[in-house]
Write a structure and sequence with these properties.
By secondary structure, the protein is an alpha+beta fold. The chain folds into two domains: 15-328, BirA Bifunctional Protein, domain 2, CATH 3.30.930.10; 341-427, 3-Layer(aba) Sandwich (Rossmann fold). The protein has 17 helices and 17 strands. β3 (65-67) and β4 (73-76) form a beta hairpin. 37% of the residues are buried.
């Protein structure tokens, strides 16, 4: 017999894990509703050019890319934003702004599999398009906090920075975009010495290197004090000063909302995607060394895909990573008491009756199974008990003659005879 296994980096979710994944997805959808985001569904397969346009070298090299039968170069989406930007640049281009869009599904990257990192993973993705105001950035931070809170996570921190600070300095020092991207990629991997050496090799003056060095080392949980020190650090670099001011406004708005988010400002923070232009952030918990979600502002991406200049900010949350965090922190799902039922016919000739009773119960929104293994009553009840089913309806000859069935409460270990027309009200 052949021993088929899952493809490396892919995995199966058994019922219990699938239930947690769906639970988090429901919470993500609820957050989308609460904040006014509308769901869209985009293809898993997109053109390679679209996905490669502005993702960054790291992700480009890890895409599942292939030629389809029409000899077109296509790839599995490594994230959602490029697909959403394509839609906004084309089909949705005349829709009134702001656009609040939500997507949920699987994405693919050829990463080295490890705890919490797989080649197929799940995200809930929110994009707010059309506003360049700090309140849009603040909304994305608050929305992410709402999701983390709603699943019950503890001790999570928002690491936040601003791409415009480092890029502002490098732009004013006339570093070309390719070099800037390479520097940001190295910083994203926390290879700060290599990043600074790259700036040095570009012939940048010593003062600039010292400023960048200070920024890389500048981080702290006292948000406004850290921002103040960033402001002092970038003095004289107008673009970087504007970026620090923008970050201050965003954090001030979140503070005024009384969302009580634990922030850690990191001036040297960079993320792997090239399209970010402003505030960036990630959510981390102490138990896991990978981000549970992250995002930021990208004001030029829609334009890159041929759309009108459209400022935008977004976030993606890792549904499977949130599940891992919940399991690590031993956070149970909220209990939803559902009175599950099994209908057990005592003889083969009563199976049709059992089917009819089960149909009526399901039409009343009561989850109902029928005993389909032909087991004796004792065995069927034992199985129902093991699977924590609350009620067993026993369809027997004697009771049916009286237009009734036996309803057994498997939790209380009690049973009674109930008329057929009263079954639903007895269980509800």
């Amino acid at each position: 017999m052949s021993q088929f296994k899952t493809v490396r980096g892919m995995r199966d979710f058994l019922p219990e894990e699938a239930k947690i994944m769906k639970y988090i997805e429901e919470k993500a959808r609820r957050v989308a509703e609460l904040y006014g985001y509308q769901e869209i569904i985009t293809p898993v397969v997109e053109s390679y050019e679209l996905l490669a346009a502005k993702t960054g070298e790291e992700i480009r090299s890890r895409m599942f890319a292939f030629r389809d039968l029409g000899d077109r170069m296509v790839a599995l989406r490594p994230e959602f934003t490029a697909s959403v930007a394509r839609l906004v640049a084309t089909t949705l281009k005349n829709e009134p702004k702001p656009l609040r869009l939500f997507s949920v599904g699987s994405v693919y990257r050829y990463d080295e599999p490890q705890r919490g990192r797989y080649r197929e993973f799940w995200q809930s993705n929110y994009e707010l398009m059309g506003s360049d105001k700090p309140e849009a950035d603040a909304e994305i931070l608050m929305l992410t906090n709402s999701l983390m809170k709603s699943v019950g996570l503890r001790n999570y921190t928002f690491k936040v920075g601003h791409v415009g600070v480092l890029r502002g300095i490098m732009t004013e020092e006339n570093l070309d975009e390719k070099t800037q991207n390479a520097v940001m990629q190295l910083m994203d991997k926390k290879m700060y010495d290599e990043a600074l050496n790259l700036v040095k090799d570009s012939g940048t003056k010593e003062d600039c290197i010292i400023t960048l060095q200070k920024l890389v080392e500048l981080k702290g949980g006292d948000v406004f004090d850290t921002v103040k020190r960033m402001r002092e650090c970038v003095g004289g670099y107008k673009k970087a000063e504007d970026a620090v001011e923008n970050l201050y406004k965003i954090l001030k708005l979140v503070s005024e909302s009384e969302s009580k988010i634990a922030f850690m400002v990191d001036a040297g923070f960079a993320r792997g995607l090239e399209y970010y232009t402003g505030m960036i952030f990630e959510v981390i918990v102490p138990e896991i060394d990978i981000a549970l979600g992250g995002g930021g502002r990208y004001d030029r991406l829609i334009e890159l895909f041929g759309g009108e200049p459209t400022p935008a900010v977004g976030v993606a949350h890792g549904i499977d990573r949130i599940m891992l965090a919940m399991q690590t922190q031993k956070i149970p799902m909220e209990k939803r008491e559902e009175n599950r039922v099994v209908v057990i016919p005592t003889k083969e000739e009563f199976v049709g009756r059992a089917m009819e009773i089960s149909r009526r119960l399901r039409e009343a929104s009561i989850p109902t199974e029928v005993e389909v293994m032909g087991r004796k009553i004792a065995k069927a009840l034992e199985d129902a008990d093991r699977r924590r089913i609350k009620y067993a309806i026993i369809v027997g000859e004697k009771e049916l003659k009286e237009g009734a069935v036996v309803i057994r409460d498997l939790i209380k270990r009690e049973q009674k005879i109930v008329k057929l027309e009263k079954i639903i009200e007895e269980i509800i």
